[in-house]
User: What shape does this take?
Amino acid sequence: MSKVPYEVYTEDVEALTVLSPAGEVINKDKMPALTDDQLKEIAYRMIFTRTWDDRAVNLGRQGRLGFYAPTSGQEATMVGSEFALEKEDFICPGYRDIPQLVWHGLPLHQAFLYSRGHQHGGEIPEDVSVLPPQIIIGAQILHATGIAMGFKLKNQKNVAITYTGDGGSSEGDFYEGLNFAGRFKLPVIFFVQNNGYAITTPFAKQTASKSIAHKAVAAGITGVKVDGMDIFAVIQAVREAAERARNGEGPTLIEAVTYRFRPHSLSDDASKYRTKEEEGEWNEKDPIARVVKYLESKGLWSDEDTQRVKDEAKAKVNEEIKLAEKTEKMTISGLIDSMFETTPKDLEEQKADFE
Amino acid sequence: MAQMNMKEAIRDAMRVELKRDPNVLIFGEDVGHVGGVFRATEGLQGEFGEERVFDTPLAESAIGGLAVGLGVQGFRPIAEIQFVGFIFEALDQMVIQAARLRYRTGGKYNAPIVFRTPFGGGVKAAELHTDSLEGLIAQSPGIKVVVPSNPYDAKGLLIAAIRDNDPVFFMEHLNLYHAFRTEVPEGDYTVEIGKANVVREGSDVTIIAYGLMVHTATKAADELEKSGIKAEIIDLRTVSPIDIDTIVESVKKTNRAIVVQEAQKSAGVAAEVIAQINEKAILHLEAPVLRIAGPDTVYPFAQIEDTWLPNPARIIAGVKKVLEF
Ligand SMILES: Cc1ncc(C[n+]2csc(CCOP(=O)(O)OP(=O)(O)O)c2C)c(N)n1
Assistant: This one.
């Protein structure tokens, strides 16, 4: 075994890219195997997700949604990472990772219910392996680690994936999760969407580390960095990580370098900390444009297809928001009864204050 | 005198202290360049530089622990925890490390830290942004808990907190940041930590409240006055330690009391207030002291928070109950 003398790991890591911004496959070895139907499905999901985000922002402005964290720009990381998984694999999301939940099976109207501050938004259907969005940054990383240990103990060949941002990679929970997962060789994927900002704090002020992928080294696990605007690179990296996990080779930290076109949340003004120039540069790397160009070159996609998906997405969003709006309101009694399996006497008494 | 809302008053307090004492530092997530998610520290980095007002990486335990270390070095940190639900990540540093430092080092070191955090319901924020966690901290010895209800108090209390040589948890109600303006003196003044304020005099019942609930109680008292019931309202201002003397004095006069808190009912500040009334003034009571509070559930998702939170009607019903006892 070779030893690195004195200075250790100071080099930059290059991000895996498969598809160029011009829509050409520039790294054939790493192009994930995808059928034409799968390619079309990917384009469909990405465009659907973008349209839904556009609509959600409007619904937010109209007061029909509550807390909502925009996703535009992150379709490659969100759609791609989920696409690379099996249905029985488990997703532990952060507050922004709603697309992964929905593509993994959470009905859209439930995502809207969650946003509208309704408890039933978190009532996950039986066969959907996800937890509700997590507000505490980093907490979900440890849950995924535990879920992965569960898979291992039960000899189940599934993986858990968990998401956080560049900011989230500073939390203690992040390091504790990586270290545990390494120690127990757990089938878990830590997927960091590095979109350059934690609310207003730029990456350069978040860490002195050259990349988040480097942080895997200290935990003794595999760390990789991918172009997060390139869905093929994302799919490839997650597939490889999932395969390692299923083979008992332990966890992977994936850093995907991406960008969010909209501000952190609906109540935030990005012009206070981002420049128009920077936004323009990232626009050129739009993950959807890239895939569409590629599919068009293969004769698999046209403008009409894009329009059709947009129309479908709009109609679906309208339908699902109405469903959310029609859902019966929560009650204090219902809330009280949802605290314990059997409501204790003193809590029973408290219902009277609200009748 | 200047007119300020509570947020401006809080910012002004920090500016006054940054100017007065070079050891005062401000740090936390996003507090620097942009001035925080509520802009409470807006402009301070520009005025005092990045060494004194700075953004940290996203790590609350590190923010708390950094404050402890800087306190050991003689600095006076104002550490912002962006929203109240995230104090749990910093809890060890706040209520164990900071709060026990003086005791553990036999007085050699102390933790002159202010932990500032927004909290408080009725704003339909995301989960864990609004919970009233003051009771949790109040149960921890060695740290004071301050909850201002208006701009004047906020500035005076915050300056007092920054000058306090022990850790202070300073909670700013989200619904009060922009609610109204009052006259706030320029420059330097303090409001004593641990001293309650009689905000309205009355003879029939004492309503003890703090934070936004002082205003909710005032609305109830206005209503009650129409039917000839005169409520006295005490604003605790500090929920740990509690100014029991002011409360006892009032109870001696009114013989009846209720305590209003946004937090869940059990084992909290209201329970402590009632315990102390029992210890010091039970023979002056004509009726049991009631709590008007949130029920013992998790803080609910946005949709029903307005029903969940104490409102004037529930306070009025409580007052009638103690009057008719
Ligand atoms: C423990 C905790 N601390 C602080 C926050 C407040 N907060 C919400 S989002 C955010 C920034 C997150 O940045 P990043 O992890 O990079 O994710 P992004 O939203 O950019 O995808 C902060 C500080 C929180 N939700 N949880």
Notes: The pocket of thiamine diphosphate is lined by residues A 96, 135-137, 164-168, 193, 195, 197-199, 264; B 29, 58, 60, 82, 86, 89 (CB under 6 Å). Chain A has a mean pLDDT of 95. Residues 28-259+285-325 of chain A form a domain with the Rossmann fold fold (CATH 3.40.50.970).
